[in-house]
Write a structure and sequence with these properties.
The protein contains four helices and two strands. The chain is mostly helical. It has one domain. A two-stranded parallel ribbon has the order 1-2. The longest helix has 17 residues. The model has no long low-confidence stretch (mean pLDDT 93).
């Protein structure tokens, strides 16, 4: 069994719906795909930054 480890850039591309990245990840057994704790932390940091920068109710809701 080989394990696919996605870095932060690839997780972001997957979340944004990048067709090639989606195709490749969706073609792999989900139990063989992983992310590092660094990627989790960077994703959380980015999301919290979006919330912090929201300057209106609409921006906060979409964050």
């Amino acid at each position: 069994m080989s394990l696919w480890i996605l870095d932060t850039d690839h997780v972001s591309l997957f979340q944004q719906g990048h067709p090639l990245v989606r195709q490749r990840v969706n073609g792999v057994n989900p139990q063989e795909v992983a992310v590092t704790i660094v990627t989790v932390e960077e994703q959380l940091y980015g999301r919290l930054n979006q919330i912090r920068r929201a300057n209106s109710r609409e921006a906060l809701i979409s964050a």
